[in-house]
Design brief:
The complex is a heterodimer. Chain A has a domain of 186 residues: Rossmann fold, CATH 3.40.50.300. In chain A, a hairpin with a 2-residue loop joins strand 4 and strand 5. By secondary structure, chain A is α/β, with parallel strands linked by helices. By secondary structure, chain B is α/β, with parallel strands linked by helices. In chain B, 34% of the residues lie in helices and 23% in strands. In chain B, helix 4 packs across helix 5 and helix 5 crosses helix 7. Classes of the chains: A alpha/beta, B alpha/beta. At the A-B interface, helix 6, helix 7, helix 9 and helix 10 of A face helix 8, helix 9, helix 10 and helix 11 of B.
């Protein structure tokens, strides 16, 4: 994927300090995100996948400065926005938006749909009060809802309709970049497909850039230009969709792909699955060296000792694994 | 696979005409409408449907575990010669956890947080099998080993919060299996889990089914998951069975427009990546507000006048065989062909 990077994420780290024990007497650090580097190209859909607790949502939140980064940079329009305070972030919030997972808890139950969608428009003073109803109508039509919904309350809507409202709200201030944080995971299969199609249509219409955070690999393969695989707070692999699904290099990516069930009983009977043993270790005390070495089927001594370098194997295909041969030094 | 020459398989569970109602302010509303389902001995049945289609309620009603305002209106559920819905409470207690094991969706809320997991596994063994506590603990250790928990003897004294989600789900399965049930009902047992853990649990259930020769009912919304797991699939929509067929048949020749739509809307890893997904327009009817006629008619592209007036019966496709579908149009298309 050629093009200008919209956002550059450099050595991003996010640690959470937590209190443990019955009385919070012990301090500990959750290594949610460690040394993450990637770029988001303008107009692309970049997906982050991984299992729960791998840091994919934290990445989205930290990029938007909803979590203050522990260290590292998020470069947007030449500035490191990771160090901005709330006031400095405010004008940028117009460009950088998010759609959350749970459409039931993201909308204020006491605000009508019209008020919810209109709020960011008024906040950023994008139009006059008189023009507002017209703009709300247009946004609702954009996301496939009839304009009469503006007077309704969230409890009157189904899950899929609420997610459409959440998308309309994100679109309201004409953003450049939207983080879709598991935006389709809570929806039923038949509704999921509708929302995915809507997101793709809107991207084409408004030239949006998406960071799509998901755990469903089949969906990700369908909609992404590039895919990043995360494990326990680190990126394991990042490549174009074609590269990643045809030629996965990291043993974790391979295991993840092989664990996805296929909707084909004949294929499933003959398919050899490589099932990972054990659970994901705790991010409170991540393994030394490569974080995957405790579950890796091909791990060697070096994996437990040294953190693998984030390197490029072929143009656009990055991986962090000692045992993948070759490498390009760009 | 010739259905004519094979002896009729023995039905372990036979549900007939099951209807479930909920009390609302506007009076009773039907949420499950005359469901017919059966599970043969040694068979794994997948029940698929979206949220609110009544798949969990159907199975909960068999164990008479429905919440307060929800009641069975009519129907029978014959299990090994007796009706689960009318048997006495003391008989039912012997069936629950004894002949029928249940694995619930959320291991966080269905395990007792203040009881050690060993005691939770021993409970059914002591109750149903009259085991001594010491024997029950030995059996509990075996069960934990069976479901793949490392160092099971030490784990017996752990509390649920000390285990990960996948481990807790394994404990739930161990409890469900404790008394060697003839039937295991698993209600979305892997929905809360990550794919790599899901793959472990699915492999485990497949292996145990062969080892213990039990029947399994696997309730899920994930068609891809059951493709490699079950023998037969029943597709539910708005409280009715719309299609019921052997798994290969269902995926090769889905006949109900809803099943077709559902299959088409799941992206597959093996497909050529296209950008748009095919989707089913509209939303499922709210539970209790089912339309007259076929419940899928308002979303169906093939719907005709008859579909909006009367409910299509679930009948064998083409007059005979194990593939049954409740659709006027699909039945007629086959006759024409």
């Amino acid at each position: 994927m050629q093009g200008e990077p919209l956002l550059k994420i450099e050595n991003l780290v996010k640690h959470f300090n937590v209190r443990l024990g019955a009385f919070g007497e012990r301090g500990a650090t959750v290594h949610a995100l460690d040394d993450v580097n990637f770029e988001i190209i303008e107009g692309e859909t970049l997906s982050l996948v991984g299992e729960s607790g791998c840091g994919k949502s934290t990445t989205g939140f930290t990029i938007l400065n909803l979590h203050q980064a522990t260290s590292g940079k998020v470069i947007y329009k030449g500035e490191n926005i990771a160090t901005f305070d709330d006031k400095a972030m405010r004008p940028l919030r117009r460009d950088l938006q998010i759609v959350f997972q749970d459409p039931y808890s993201t909308l204020n139950p006491r605000m009508t749909i019209g008020e919810a969608v209109g709020e960011p428009i008024l906040f950023h003073k994008l139009c006059t009060k008189a023009e507002l109803p017209e703009r709300i109508n247009r946004l609702l039509t954009d996301v496939g809802l009839p304009p009469r919904f503006a007077g309704r309350y969230p409890h009157e809507l189904s899950g899929g309709q609420r997610q459409r409202v959440a998308i309309a709200r994100a679109l309201a201030c004409e953003p450049k970049f939207i983080v879709c944080d598991e935006a389709i995971s809570a929806l039923d299969v038949s509704i999921q497909a509708q929302i995915i199609n809507l997101l793709l249509d809107l991207q084409e219409k408004y030239g949006l850039t998406y960071l799509f955070i998901a755990h469903d690999l089949a969906v990700v393969r369908h909609i992404s230009d590039r895919v990043g695989v995360m494990y326990l707070g680190r990126l394991a692999e990042l490549a174009t969709r074609e590269q990643l699904f045809a030629n996965p290099l990291h043993p974790y990516t391979k295991a993840l792909l092989s664990a996805v069930p296929e909707a084909d009983p004949v294929l499933e009977k003959t398919r050899h699955r490589q099932v990972l043993q054990g659970d994901v270790p705790s991010p409170l005390n991540p393994p030394t060296g490569c974080r995957f070495h405790t579950r890796c089927p091909i791990a060697q001594e070096v994996c437990a000792q040294t953190i693998p370098e984030w390197r490029q194997i072929e143009p656009g295909h990055m991986v962090a694994c000692h045992l993948v041969p070759g490498g390009l030094h760009a | 696979m010739n259905a004519m020459t094979m002896p009729a398989p023995e039905r372990l569970l036979d549900v007939k005409g099951l209807s479930i109602e909920i009390d609302t302010r506007r009076g009773p509303a039907t949420i499950v409408d005359g469901i017919n389902l059966h599970v043969n001995k040694g068979e794994t049945l997948g029940i698929v449907g979206e949220s609110g289609c009544g798949k969990s309620l159907t199975m909960l009603s068999l164990m008479r575990l429905l919440p307060n305002k929800i009641k069975v209106k009519s129907g029978t559920a014959n299990f090994a010669g007796r009706d689960l819905l009318t048997m006495s409470k003391s008989e039912l207690r012997k069936v629950r956890g004894g002949q029928v094991g249940f694995v619930f969706q959320d291991p966080m809320t269905s395990l007792n947080p203040v009881m050690r997991i060993g005691d939770q596994i021993c409970e059914p063994l002591i109750y149903h099998k009259n085991m001594k506590r010491s024997d029950a603990r030995i059996r509990a250790t075996e069960l934990l080993r069976l479901v793949g928990i490392p160092s099971p003897a030490e784990r017996l004294d752990a509390f649920p919060h000390e285990l990960s989600g996948g481990m807790r789900q394994r404990v739930m399965i161990a409890i469900g299996l404790a008394c060697d049930p003839e039937l295991l009902i698993a209600d979305e047992p892997t929905t809360a889990l990550d794919v790599t853990i899901q793959a472990q649990i699915v492999d485990l259930v497949k292996e145990l089914r062969v080892k213990l020769g039990m029947s399994v009912v696997w309730i899920t919304h994930d068609l891809a998951l059951i493709a490699g797991l079950v023998d037969r699939v029943a597709v539910l929509y708005a409280g009715t069975v719309v299609e019921d067929a052997p798994v290969e048949e269902l995926f090769a020749r889905p006949s109900h427009p809803y099943t077709r739509g559902l299959l088409a809307s799941i992206p597959k890893l093996s497909d050529v990546a296209a950008n748009r997904l095919s989707s089913i327009g509209g939303t499922p009817p709210e539970p209790g507000r089912r339309p007259q006629g076929c419940p899928f008619a308002p979303r169906c592209q093939l719907a005709e006048d008859i579909c909006r007036q009367s409910v299509p019966p679930l009948e064998p496709l083409g007059g005979s065989g194990p593939h049954r579908v409740a659709c006027f149009v699909a039945q007629r298309q086959l006759e024409a062909a």
